Amino acid sequence: MDSQTQNTSLQRLQNVEKRIVRVLELAAGVMDELSNPTGPRKEFVNNHCREFMQMIKDIQVALREEIKSACDYRPFEKCDYSSRIANEICCKKLDYVVLQLDQMKQTIDDYRSSTL
């Protein structure tokens, strides 16, 4: 990652941190309102809960994007474990077959050069 990308990534993560602080403030506000001796104000609680849920969703999206951008390309990221393992096994088998073919070609070449 170059320094420009790191800076923008850090800035995005700082924004996420600010959102997390705001979410905690919203939760504390609702808790205070619920503990109000005269009873909670319904509109206040509804607005805070709505904002809380929206910010949680925004935080999840932002973190998911940051994690994706920080990771190497993964062609099987949406596949399950067995699909990835099956693919890796197939690749190892292909490597072995290519090695065997190379050895056969070498044997044929050696045979041809010895018969001349």
TrEMBL record:
Q: Which UniProt keywords apply?
A: Activator, Nucleus, Transcription, Transcription regulation
Protein name, entry field? Mediator of RNA polymerase II transcription subunit 11
Record's InterPro entries?
Mediator_Med11
Q: How does it assemble?
A: Component of the Mediator complex.
Q: Name one GO biological process term.
A: regulation of transcription by RNA polymerase II
The record's function comment reads: Component of the Mediator complex, a coactivator involved in the regulated transcription of nearly all RNA polymerase II-dependent genes. Mediator functions as a bridge to convey information from gene-specific regulatory proteins to the basal RNA polymerase II transcription machinery. Mediator is recruited to promoters by direct interactions with regulatory proteins and serves as a scaffold for the assembly of a functional pre-initiation complex with RNA polymerase II and the general transcription factors.
Recorded family membership: Belongs to the Mediator complex subunit 11 family.
One Pfam family of this protein, by short name? Med11
Report which gene this protein is encoded by.
Answer: MED11
Give the UniProt entry's GO cellular component terms.
mediator complex
Top-rank taxon: Eukaryota
Q: Where in the cell is it found?
A: Nucleus
Q: Name one GO molecular function term.
A: transcription coregulator activity
**Where mainly located?**
nucleus
Keyword flag Metal-binding? no
